[in-house]
Amino acid sequence: MVFSSHIFLFGFLPIALLLYYLTPFRWKSITLTLLSYVFYGWWNPWFVLLMFGSTLVDYLCGGVISKEGQSPLAGKTALWVSISVNLLSLGFFKYAIFVSDSIGGLATWMGWEPVGAPDFLRYIVLPVGISFYTFQSMSYSIDLYRGHAKAAKNFADFACYVSMFPQLVAGPIVRYGAISEQLRNRSHTMQGFAAGMTRFNYGFAKKILLANPMGQIADTCFEAGGGSLSALAAWVGAVTYALQIYFDFSAYSDMALGLGRMMGFRFMENFDSPYKSTSLTEFWRRWHISLSGFLRDYLYIPLGGNRRGRARTYLNLLLVMLIGGVWHGAQWTFVIWGALHGAILALERWGRERFNLPIPRVIGRAVTGVLLLVTWVFFRSESCGVAVNYLKAMSGFGEAGEEQGLLHELILRPVELGQLCVCLIIALFFPNSREFLERLVWWKVAAGLGLTFISVRVMSLQGFNPFLYFQF
Amino acid sequence: MKNPYSKEDLREEVVPGPITLLVGITTFILFLVVPLILSLSSFDLALSKPEQGKSFRSVLRDIDSAFSDATVFQQWRERDQSILSCGLREGNSRVVMGGQGTLHYRPDIDSVIGKGPFYREPTSVARAPGGTPWQDPLPVILEFSDQLRERGIELLVVPVPTKSMKVSVRGINHDSVPAFWHLMKERISEAGITFVDLMPALEGAEPFLDQDTHWSSGAVQKAAVLIADAAALPKGGLVTGMREVERENRGDLVDMLGLGEADGCFPEESQPLVQVIDAELGNPVAPNPESPYALLGDSFVNIYDDPSLGFGESGEERIGAGLASHLSGQSGLQFHVIAINGGGASGARKAFAALPLDVVAKKKKVIWVFSARDLLLAEIPGRRAGVRWERVEFNPRSRSGSVRPDVMTLTGVVHDRSRIGDPLETAYDSAIYSVLVGEIAMESGEYSEGEAFVFLWAFQDRTLASTAGLKKGRRYRFTLVPFPSSGAISHATQLDDLFRQDLPRYFAESVEPVE
To answer: Hey, what CATH class is B402-513 in?
Structure first.
């Protein structure tokens, strides 16, 4: 089920709120878990079993890890069981076909016998949001092992943490330690509900009124063939995609935070105006903050972080971003995207340590913007070949012919250009949702309701509009 | 224990008092609940749609659709789209509103600006678990040509250039021909198949209708000259005359905007038609299934002949100004016309291949006319536009292989059935679908096969037909007639996943469950 759908807004949400608030506090976690299973099972009821299995394994492993007087070996074994089960499930559903195809490609390239992927791999359906909930579930075992969290008091609380529908499929990735207390004890106030409702309304409007129109232009450009993709169209496509992915993903986060707040939860912020960054290093402090934090705490620091010399630090940055890239998707384009980000982060660090030159903010923002646009091309393209051709078109070395006029007529109409300018201004100069709603006054609540009404009407015209990050 | 992540909590200051908040929250809740209550009646109707042997997931999808198609949202959609289209000249996801009153079908534009039919989607993108694998058009065309050649039949491939290749979004005539069009033409010609390039037929003032995906009447006439010439048709004995009439119609693209009754803001478009009249009978020239010349195609063939696509008058069965009529006018020949709206790529070929062996054996040439959109779209936009390229197998049986009385009544159990999509999402108003009936008990007439391959209405005017809900495993009483070779049924879009070329095709005039 998608937040921006009629079934969610007018069916699931009112029923979920009603059931949640009718349930006595001690049963609320169970109600929320059951509702979340319905929400998740709507895509494919079998996926619920997978999530339940992952939850059960991590809960049991957590029990072993946190048991008093437990031998270190048993704790360590339980930790690795938890990590292995989660990574194996993720690997099978997300990466099996990619690995198999890559081996086949390598074999062909080496001139060996062709190796075809087993047919059944081609019929595997990727469970929505598997990357998010496996990471979240896995972080529980790791946090317990490190002593950063206490074990869940009961299975219901833990299942509720893993499956909680507001942030289940696209984050923010919530660590157990961050909400364990809230699972046991949270307050439900009118103020909290109103704040959550308003955050949800603004997120919904952001998705429908900003992200989707940008997505239409971006899709047109990225689906265009070499004969129609001029340099201008390629740049418009890259910029609109950058805006789409930001508004789309941050809209989901706003809605997730809002829904959580309506039910008394406070989740962490996931975005902080990332396109206002003056470097890529800053960008990663502002973009998908929960993933950056996860990669930092569970990968970068265990790899040695910046404590093992410069060369190792650069290598760690590269490795972490590579894995971050692969986490997003089983394609070489994501590997390259991650590698480019890792390399740029390492380069920025080297530049800071070597020269430490003060760079004017305007120049920093412009350079970061261009770097992001170029790397987003890999993120959006379906293959490396398409990405390279797209970048060629952006550099003016494309092969656009007479069809480019038709594409221009489609994407450069006044309405589309107007939408693009509005989105750019909002992303670059306006306060973000958190800043805007930090002080909630009546007109912001009213404006949010008005925007929701308009957005529902526009949503009816737009058709199906899933969130981009659902595919990860 | 200290929460190491406490700094990540969301904190905000809520200024309004409890009454203001209560008003806001109540408004929000009412907004979520009232549309649902208002549309409960339509919701009930949607959920009580006839069972179709569906999986649990399909039922969930039906509930999704019931919500999004609820009356209140449908009314909002029509009203808002009419404000956008009539007031602000904005289209929707399927229709682009261009300059000078020109509407464009979005997949037509995609077929020109897209990656083209030779582009291979990577596995990670193209993977469609449980779905039909994508077939590239070229191998299918080459195989079809080989199949015909084996039977001594010559194939002419005639893709009709899309509107976007000749008319810009701004409504100005231009030539925008992608490189892959030329490449496709080259590959097909290299295989010894006659590729008729209709671009020259579309020169001139108005090659396409403004509000419609289809070509103008003038372009049809020019195309008929080109095709007759390329096919080197012999001069037939049919004497024809011409009659000019002026007709009006509101285009299919206006329908696709989904404006409901507000479509009046688009005035009907007028076309001067030239009807080809059989001089002996005084009627429009009729198709002849016995003709050695078959004309296969889609709505580009049917338009100006089939009144269900517009431009007809009440009671008129055939307009007589379409491509088949003008080919007859050019050559003095009648044609065996098999044209299925939306079925140019596969449906018409499947229907041709299903003809009895002895009927096919009499054919000399097959002229296959279909929208170039089907030929030029890459996989992803092609799937989105509902294009399907399928290989066909020819019927190994002749007419004498089974007795086919005109009407027969039987009871039988539905062994399999084709899927029916959402009528609101298709490009056409009406469609028929196929079922496979077994365990047959005859009540009247004669039938010698173990199973019957039956078509029924799936939906008409985008409303599910009462015959759409046949369940697998249940017994029904069918009144069957041989599948008609002309009329609305023969032209309707065919939803056929069963692909039973080995059985004769029937149409169910009526069906009722047997207890």
So the answer is: mainly beta
